[in-house]
Design a protein that fits this description.
Order of helices and strands: HEEHHHHH
Number of helices: 6
Strand content: 5-15%
Helix content: 40-55%
Largest sheet: 2 strands, antiparallel
Shape: elongated
């Protein structure tokens, strides 16, 4: 259990972005510790760490669609042409995560609908 707590603490430090306020999110302001040395982070490293902490990757899966009645006829045709078997609507929607946890269509479903 101590090991798990330690790993959780370490993973937080790996993802966090610390910056000097006067420089902001720039290479001059953001540093990374490598061994006993500190180096400036590249813009790409800053971007990756920022996205890991502040962007909700599951937003499209959680957010309710503004439309209640969606159909996926064209998408099913596409899958069938690629050799995938689409048996029933419920498993199709579940496998593609087209509904949120409440069973409502989500933004991904809205995007992929006809």
């Amino acid at each position: 259990q101590v090991y798990l707590t330690l790993m959780m603490s370490i993973s937080c430090f790996i993802k966090c972005v610390y910056c000097q306020k006067k420089y902001g999110f720039s290479s001059n302001g953001c540093i990374i510790r490598i061994g006993t040395a500190c180096k400036e982070m590249t813009p790409e490293q800053i971007k990756i760490r920022y996205e890991q902490n502040f962007i909700d990757n599951e937003y499209m899966l959680k957010k309710k669609s503004s439309m209640a009645d969606l159909s996926f006829r064209e998408l099913k045709i596409y899958y069938a042409e690629k050799g995938y078997h689409v048996l029933d609507n419920n498993s199709f929607e579940k496998n593609l995560n087209l509904r949120n946890q409440n069973g409502e269509y989500n933004l991904l479903g809205e995007l992929l609908a006809d």
